[in-house]
Design a protein that fits this description.
Elements: H1 17-25, H2 27-38, H3 41-57, H4 68-101, H5 105-112, H6 116-123, H7 128-139, H8 144-151, H9 155-190
C-alpha cells in the first residue's frame, strides 16, 4: 500500500505533519513576541494559543516558499491589534456612558552577551512600538521590510522606532546594571565582618 505525499490540495482540511512540526519550532519566537505585545503572562499565553489556532485553521493560506515565522508573526500582530481596538472601543463606550450619566548586526553581538531574560525585561521598560520593532529585527532576524509588513507601518517608521528604541533599551540595561551593582554593594556593607580582636563565641 502506497502513501500519498501530503499536499495542500483543495479539500484537504487538516494540516500535515510538516506544517505542524514547523509551527512547533516557531513557538519560542512567538512567545517572545507575545511577551513584548502583552506584557503579562496570562495574556501572553492566550495570544500564543489564539495565533496557533488561527494558523492551523487557515494553514492553506500559507504560501510555500515563504517564511512560516513571518506569517505567524503577522497573524499574532493582527489578533493583538484587533483585541486592542476592541478594548479601546469598549473603554470609549464606557467612558462615554459614564460621562453621559453625570519590537543591526551589532545588536546580535550585544544581545548575545546578555541573558535573554534581561533583554526581555528591559524591553518591557520602553515603548511598545519600539520594543516590538527591536524584537522582530534584532532578536528574530527579520528584515526591515518583513518587520514593517508585520507591524503594518512604513519601513522608514520602523527604522525610526528601532533607532529610538536602541537608545531607550541601552538606558534600561544600564539602569538595571547599576541597580544590581548597588544592591550587591549594599548587601556587602550590611554583612558584619569579623575582626581579629572580636571574641569567639566558644
Amino acid at each position: 500500500m502506497t502513501h500519498k505525499p501530503e499536499t495542500k490540495a483543495l479539500g484537504t482540511r487538516r494540516p500535515g505533519n510538516r506544517f505542524r512540526n514547523e509551527l512547533v519550532d516557531c513557538l519560542p519566537a512567538l512567545r517572545r513576541f507575545s511577551i513584548i505585545l502583552c506584557r503579562n503572562q496570562p495574556s501572553c499565553d492566550d495570544l500564543v494559543q489564539a495565533t496557533c489556532e488561527r494558523a492551523l485553521a487557515r494553514w492553506q493560506q500559507f504560501k510555500d516558499g515563504t517564511r512560516l515565522q513571518s506569517w505567524l508573526f503577522s497573524i499574532m500582530h493582527s489578533i493583538w491589534k484587533n483585541k486592542q481596538r476592541r478594548e479601546h472601543n469598549q473603554r470609549n463606550a464606557h467612558d462615554k456612558l459614564r460621562h453621559d450619566n453625570h519590537f543591526t548586526d551589532g545588536e546580535q553581538e550585544v544581545f548575545g552577551k546578555i541573558e535573554l531574560s534581561e533583554v526581555l525585561s528591559a524591553l518591557q521598560g520602553i515603548s511598545l512600538d519600539q520594543a516590538a520593532a527591536i524584537v522582530l529585527v534584532s532578536l528574530d532576524g527579520l528584515s526591515y521590510r518583513e518587520a514593517a509588513g508585520i507591524l503594518d507601518i512604513p519601513q522608514g517608521t520602523l527604522e525610526s522606532r528601532i533607532a529610538r528604541g536602541r537608545i531607550a533599551l541601552g538606558k534600561q540595561l544600564e539602569s538595571k546594571a547599576s541597580g544590581n551593582k548597588q544592591e550587591q554593594q549594599n548587601s556587602q556593607c550590611s554583612t558584619p565582618k569579623r575582626t581579629l580582636c572580636e571574641p569567639r563565641g566558644d
